[in-house]
Sequence to fold (128 residues):
Amino acid sequence: MSITATTAEELGKALKNDESEITIEGDLEKKVIRIKVAGKVAWAIAGGAIACAVIATIAAVGSGGTAAPVAVPTAFIGATAATGVLGVGATTTAIAIAVAAGGFASLSKLRRNYRLEKRDGKSILIKK
Fold:
């Protein structure tokens, strides 16, 4: 069954549910391609920074905001480092996907387990 995602949150949930086919539409399409095509070294840099931002964001949300004084600067620093590699749009999308899916592992799953099957300029289809 194919799921369609137009937002980072929808894509995060589809990855969390381990969907076999995901159609990605709209602005999300270009951002996901940037995440998928980043080279290994670039992803190592961006991924580490994004992982820190995701952990900080989840900690702030999970604590009801009591972790915010520490989490917000950590998330900002992580996001800033990743934007140099992926750009602002792809970085914020990556963080949103990971937060919606419950952790950074979803981005690793997106990069490793899904292959780009079809691209028409408006959407992409990724499959396991």
In short: DSSP finds six helices and four strands in the chain. The chain has one domain: 2-127. The helical segments are 8-16, 27-37, 40-62, 68-86, 88-101, 105-113.
